[in-house]
Specification:
With 318 residues, the chain is an alpha/beta fold. The chain folds into two domains: 7-217 and 309-316, Spore Coat Polysaccharide Biosynthesis Protein SpsA, Chain A (Alpha-Beta Complex), CATH 3.90.550.10; 237-306. Helix content is 50%, strand content 15%. It contains eleven helices and eight strands. Strands 7-5-6-4-1-2-3-8 form an eight-stranded mixed sheet, with helices on both faces. Helix 10 runs antiparallel to helix 11. The relative contact order is 0.14.
Length: 318
């Protein structure tokens, strides 16, 4: 077998949603990087760059179509906006049959493409999954840094397997993707799924860059929703927490009842309605929170039972 045939065929999967301002810039950098890796005999000349258009409303798909006329570029268009995680999943499912290994990375290229070679080297040394991990958060605002670190610590507290400071920048062997297919949940949280698949894995560290153009697709509201989805998809700890709250509230109720009974027997009147009202408000608030958490899990069951498709493909560029 020739040396060329031994080289891995790599597919780089990039989810896109309204990325017209940055897409051509990112494509140029990726083309330079993939050419560099080919010239170094790190990857096959048949390696691909695949943009997944997640129902963009701007000219993103038109740009992808234009790029596909060049060597190494291809594209997938989803029928509507299915969300970031589903767009990554769609790209992986399509490209796993056309490549030996995949790299998933966001289209803004804030994650450092210069560690691609480190990822490939780690794969050659036996790692089936290589996680891209941020080595610091100096570019983040104070609020973003605190909330992000709090999220990862909360995931650890909830016993959810995850890689600290890792988002969705990773190198995956196609063998791992074949195992990913066996995970049938509709509510995808890939950061939690890959660590429980297993196989040899390692981390490469990089410094995240400033976004060159366009706007982030993860404002605070979406970040909080994404974090909550990750917790409720992989941990039953909130439900257990409700049980513990119930026990505590029960003990408090007994103590309060004993105090009232003693006051009645000794002839001491329980003065004021404010304290009683306060207790009722606290109990009512806790009950509503508990019902809300239970409702979230019931909603998850509802989504999973329906088994709606994670994505629907409109077009695939050859």
């Amino acid at each position: 077998m020739s040396e060329v045939n031994k080289l891995i065929k790599l597919a780089i999967v990039l989810p896109c949603y309204n990325e017209e301002e940055i897409l051509e810039f990112s494509a140029k950098l990726l083309e330079q990087k993939i050419t560099e890796l080919i010239n170094k005999n790190k990857i096959s000349n048949e390696s691909l760059i695949c943009f997944v258009d997640d129902g963009s409303r701007d000219t993103t798909w038109k740009i992808i179509e234009d790029l596909s006329t060049k060597n190494h570029f291809t594209g997938i268009k989803l029928a509507t906006n299915f969300g970031h995680q589903n767009a990554i999943y769609a790209g992986m499912m399509i490209m796993k049959d056309h490549a030996d290994c995949l790299i998933t990375i966001d289209a803004d290229l804030q994650d450092d493409i210069n560690v691609f070679e480190d990822m490939i080297d780690a794969h050659e040394n036996g790692s089936m999954i290589v996680y891209g991990v941020r080595d610091n958060r100096e570019l983040d605002s104070y609020f973003k840094r605190i909330t992000a670190q709090g999220f990862y610590k909360l995931m650890q507290l909830m016993k959810v397997k995850s890689v600290y400071n890792h988002a969705d920048f990773r190198f995956i062997d196609s063998r791992v993707i074949e195992e990913l297919v066996k995970f049938k949940e509709v509510s995808l949280f890939l950061r939690g799924i890959f660590p429980i698949i297993g196989f040899n894995s390692t981390n490469v560290y990089y410094q995240r860059k400033i976004r060159v153009a366009g706007e982030t697709k993860y404002p605070l509201r979406k970040m909080l929703s994404f974090a909550w989805n990750g917790i409720t998809s992989f941990s039953t700890a909130p439900l257990r927490f409700i049980f513990y709250i119930g026990i505590i509230m029960f003990l408090i109720s007994i103590s309060f009842g004993i105090w009232v009974a003693i006051a009645a027997f000794t002839g001491e009147s329980v003065k004021g309605w404010a304290s009683s009202l306060l207790v009722n408000l606290i109990f009512s608030g806790i009950n509503m929170i508990c019902l809300g958490i239970i409702g979230e899990y019931i909603g998850k069951i509802y989504q999973e039972v329906k088994q709606r498709p994670r994505y629907i493909i409109d077009k695939i560029l050859k």
